[in-house]
Amino acid sequence: MQADLLLLQPHVYNSYFKQWIQQNVAIKDGRFLYVGPRGEDTFQAKKVVDARGLYMLPGFVDIHLHIESTMVTPESFSQGLLRNGVTTIVPEPHEMANVFGLEGVLEMINASRSCTADMFYAIPSSVPATPLETAGGSIEIEDMDALLATGDVICLGEIMNYVDVIRDPECKTNQILKHMRERYPDLVIEGHVPKLLDLDLAQVIYAGVDSDHTHQTVEGLEARIGAGMFIEIQEKSMTPEVVDYLIQHDVSEHFCFVTDDVMADSFRERGHLNQIVRKAIRMGMAPEKAIYAATLSPSRRMKLHDRGAIAPGKIADFQLVSDLGELTLQSVYKKGSEAYSASGPVTSIQAQTASAAYRFPDHFYQSVKLPELHEADFAAAVDVEDGTYRCRVMTVADGSTFTKETLVDLVAEGGLLQWENSDCGMIATFERHGKHGGKAFGLITGDTIKKGAIATTYSHDNHNLLVVGHNVRDMLLAANTAIKQQGGFCVALDGEIKANMHLPVGGILTEDPLDTAAEAVKQLREAMQALGYDHYNPIMSIATHSLPVSPYLKITDHGLIDVNSGKVVPLMVEKI
Questions:
Q1: Residue 7: which of 44, 52, 42, 60 has the closest Cα?
Q2: Tens digit of pLDDT for each residue in 240-276?
Q3: What is the distance, to the nearest Å, from the Cα of residue 67 to the centroid of all Cα atoms in its chain?
Q4: Helix boundaries (H) for 444-563
Q5: Could you tell me which of 82, 59, 25 has the C-alpha nearest to residue 341?
Q6: pTM of the entire structure?
Q7: Is 270 buried (19+), middle (13-18) or exposed (0-12) by CB count in 10 A?
Q8: 421 has a pLDDT exceeding 90
Q9: Could you tell me which of 335, 344, 285, 338 has the C-alpha nearest to residue 314?
Q10: Crossing angle (nearest 10°) for helices 218-226 and 240-248
């Protein structure tokens, strides 16, 4: 019998039994033909690989992530995936959608077509994330219908505005959910429901949202699984208590591992979904269970029934590893062809992808519609009489992207808040999509910078210009650098730019290769830490200061946002 590829005697991971069986594997036309004892006496293969001593497992499948979080284009992202054993992803491009709406989603899909890794898209469901911000684009119900008609999307991406789902039956998000339930009853609907329990959780599930990828506790995990939710475990949820729960309970069909957001330097140095599987194994999870949570479990969740297992008829996406505990990768195959080898040069399939760089439309490189800023733009003007006032302050804490509200007493004098004489920094945001030029400012403290300034056009999810600083001079320098170069992430100190990552595509992506982007991100991280930023992920921390669905106090161009109440709240609480 003819075959394209025959692998001899690897330890094959059987996804259905969650165990290893030493077998031969024949592949034909990009799919697995046979798994069993028959070998060269039965199959005349064009290529034979002696895989004795190696572990053969399916390509990893990541069903919840945002390519834009790595700040690279799909081509660069795909190459990073392959060298980490990831062959299929379900990205949700709501960052690009917040800049360019439907066109942004379509262009990300177009940019993915020549990539080796398979990319099945999720429809951004919450663009803008809430009505309390100004984004560059929006995704409406008719846009979702258009995307579903293309055949390039397989689910409705994370429903983020859970506050309105619970409290406002007529809100846009509930209209979307009703439309999807009625018109596309089999469509997978993803969720973002941090900390919800009891009746609030039940209401969100009742509305059609049946997964959650946010930070989990054992209490929340058990409540969600017990209510029929599918849980997507990202690294920040991998506390000893949560992992132990997953180990001790028979819940393999109810959870998988996902990455959500991966910084470029972490991608290069630590890996991708393989790093999460490796971590689970190190924390005591059996390799067979950890691998299941990155292969068949996520595939089933997304109804990708043609992958996630090494079995006849399935797509021949697989990886060969030499050390099971460390997942030491030797090679990765996509549809039966070698896509990555740890010991060899760039393969032909990689070279083909690398040479097909995608060019976005010209206006994607002109997305920052802001004039140069001046000192007056950072004047902390307050319409109050002179005196001391109790003010709300955004408080950053290492270990989470949540920001709490702290009350601090500050002096107002001559119509200006005297913040520069306090321990607080200023946080300001400027609408940069050419809509109305709105802006807002607030105060910030905690595990953030203690000097200098940071400015970025990469700020979830609206991606307006966000500036944090301790003096106006550095804030101006960082902000205007980002504006002049049509997008970027800039760090300034004492009148000098200390780090600057140019993000020309929509103000959020670089077209540099992953390794180049990783070095730029590393320099950003080090520069932010040198200013006193004390956080496990300072870039993601500051980028989510403007995310009004992430607890507790955030800022948009509308003002300070109390996330739990879903309202704009004043900076000043009372006069002392």
A1: 52
A2: 999 999 999 999 999 999 999 999 999 999 999 999 9
A3: 7
A4: 472-484, 514-530, 538-543
A5: 82
A6: 0.93
A7: middle
A8: no
A9: 335
A10: 40
